[in-house]
Design a protein that fits this description.
This protein is of the alpha+beta class. The chain has helices at about 15-20, 30-35, and strands at about 5-10, 15, 40-45, 45, 55, 60-65, 65-70. The strands form two sheets. It has a five-stranded mixed sheet with strand order 1-7-6-3-4, with no helix packed on it.
Length: about 70
Amino acid sequence: MKNMEKITIDTDFIKLDSLLKFAAAVGTGGEAKQAIAQGYVKVNGEVCTMRGKKLRPGDKVEFQNMEFEIVKA
């Protein structure tokens, strides 16, 4: 079973590439860009290739064996 990690934001949204960096799922923005472009990231169960995708509280992101849920601060 995957472990769901809650990512708390105090803004209205966080962009997908920023989330991966913020959550330490990738080391750099370049790695985030590549992972997203190659279709390795799912948002709410669907593959997302838009690195600027705006994630809002309630959205769930899957990457490798990690899951993140966006929550409002």
